[in-house]
Amino acid sequence: SQDPLVVFTPSGKRGRFPVGTPVLTAARQLGVDLDSVCGGRGICSRCQITPGYGEFSKHGVTARDGALSQWNAVEQRYRDKRGLTEGRRLGCQATLQSDIVIDVPPESQVHKQVVRKRAEARDIVLDPSTRLFYVEVAEPDMHDPSGDLERLRDALREQWDLHKITADLHILQEMQPVLRKGGWKVTVAVHLGDKENNPRIMQIWPGYYDGTVYGLAVDLGSTTIAAHLCDLQTGEVLASSGLMNPQIRFGEDLMSRVSYSMMNAGGAAEMTRAVRAGMRDLFTQIAEEAGVDLALIVDAVFVCNPVMHHLFLGIDPFELGQAPFALTTNSALRLRGDDLELNIHPSARVYLLPCIAGHVGADAAAVALSEAPDKSDDLVLVVDVGTNAEILLGNKERVLACSSPTGPAFEGAQISSGQRAAPGAIERVEIDPVTKAPRFKVIGSDLWSDDPRFVIEIGATGITGICGSGIIEMVAEMRMHGIVDAPGLIGSPEQTGSDRCFPDGRTYSYLVHDGTADGGPLITITNRDIREIQMAKAALYSGARLLMDKFGVDKVDRVVLAGAFGAHISSKHAMVLGMIPDAPLDKVTSAGNAAGTGARIALLNTAARAEIEATVRAIHKVETAIEPRFQEHFVNASAIPNAVEPFPILNS
Ligand code: FES
């Protein structure tokens, strides 16, 4: 008779094996993705499977109800200690008896799909940089003079097929007591290596280590630094945290930081120290929040713009401040935690995504990784809105990229009543077409300001100012209701029919909210504020328009707004302002913090690193500063929405 046939789902891989073959052995031979840390010794329980069709034999161990058990003695012990769900078996204990279909549940797959967050454009399949391996090491012998490390390496080769393993000095320092404490059984965390590095032992524990190792995905922005702490075995985000970039005290925007380094001897080094110290604070904070030991963070991925990239690496950004904006390197970098004075595992693997060009950094590369314009059938415009807008335009055929200096107005800076997004800031606005009075929402409350409960709900915080998304909606609403004209002038009370418009120097301002009676601020929109928004939005639009010229198109199929701020922009208002090209409103979507997502993809899926390196090499870079048409587009785009270009979809 024939050997039993086994079929694994979901992979569909199948084969025949002699009666008595452990499922794990069959899975390995067929290349089925079935996890194991203990190598089939019945310790780790990572190999759990469920019989789909057909059966395993019952065991001579009595179950609680007196019948024969579905589990063998090892599984029974495991069940008593940690619990094994009814119907589940350990793949290393269950053996093939007859034809059977076996399902490998997602938790038991190494390359499992990571739970997708809302707004994320693509799936992330886990392909972790670092994995845990339990090994039994040969004891030293007077007749065999090999060292403990050599015998550990032999064991990893024989039991796990891991070759060319290296270990840092700190592992050598702990290895001997750990091996002896574990009775020559240890668990090691091995970084599996990449195109520049051999596999490396990152940690070693006596016996079986029942924990996990962690990684960080970091978006280093000029204003904020945001990090996700992830479990490298499950892909789960355990904590997300952020802090203000401490370099802010050297200059609000990128160019002011570059000039700080030019004007002050040692200025660049000072900023490097500041950002690294901030990074350490953030890591302490996030590790505390998740209850994780910093030394178990063995991998970190960073995305940032070119100036942040250089300053974080300890490179003077001088050349980035002047044409031709040469980067020190635009390649991806593979470094160690201690190269950057990080407080995580000292030899943690650090990966920086490649930069696209002197003004288009690794953050834009991360956006390209998460939004994948290079895989899109339709023509997609991806705008990452911040103090510097990074713009990508492309489809499967080709992708173009540029950056445009929008300045900080979209973040509420340089606006008279502007502020950062924080409780008390106006973030949504509607102007009544008849009374021309605004109603608004502030951060921290779900109520509109004309709701009688609003005052109570906002409480002591009160209304403090207008944040970036609020100012965009405000200006767009003002334009829609005739308070501002196309060139960007606020009208008089007579012209607008609103006594909220009042003379303010040589122009008019619009009253949003008067909180002075309660000791609060007087919130107005001045004509200078409108100018600031016009400049910022014109820079954004002309960057996009320039890429469209290069592509030879005058419309795009869809628009993706990325960036933490992009998540809050209303697409209708963005289009009324002419920030983005005319497109059907349902084709304008928000991707949230796409750069952060890209960092997380590169952290969890190491194969994605090579992928984005290839994509970035193929992206065509456009330098806005030397394109004569940029100026022309900029002038036209200063009008609201635009002096020359019709917005047919918007106007319909
Ligand atoms: Fe570890 Fe089965 S492989 S318990």
Secondary structure layout plus pairing:
Elements lengths: L4 E5 L4 E3 L6 H8 L17 E6 L5 E4 L5 E2 L3 H10 L6 E2 L9 E4 L9 E2 L9 E2 L4 E7 L11 H13 L5 E2 L1 H13 L3 E7 L8 E7 L7 E7 L3 E8 L5 E8 L9 H10 L3 H24 L6 E8 L1 H8 L19 E4 L12 E4 L9 H10 L8 E5 L4 E6 L4 E6 L20 E7 L6 E5 L11 H5 L6 E2 L1 H13 L12 H4 L4 E4 L2 E8 L7 E4 L1 H25 L6 E5 L8 H7 L10 E5 L1 H11 L2 H12 L1 E2 L6 H10 L10 H4 L1
Parallel strand pairs: 1-7, 11-13, 14-17, 17-19, 20-29, 22-31, 23-25, 29-30
Antiparallel strand pairs: 1-2, 3-6, 3-7, 4-5, 8-9, 10-12, 12-13, 14-15, 15-16, 18-19, 20-21, 21-22, 23-24, 26-27, 27-28
Helix pairs in contact: 5-6, 8-14, 8-15, 10-13, 12-16
Bound molecules: FE2/S2 (inorganic) cluster (FES).
FE2/S2 (inorganic) cluster (FES) binds next to loops.
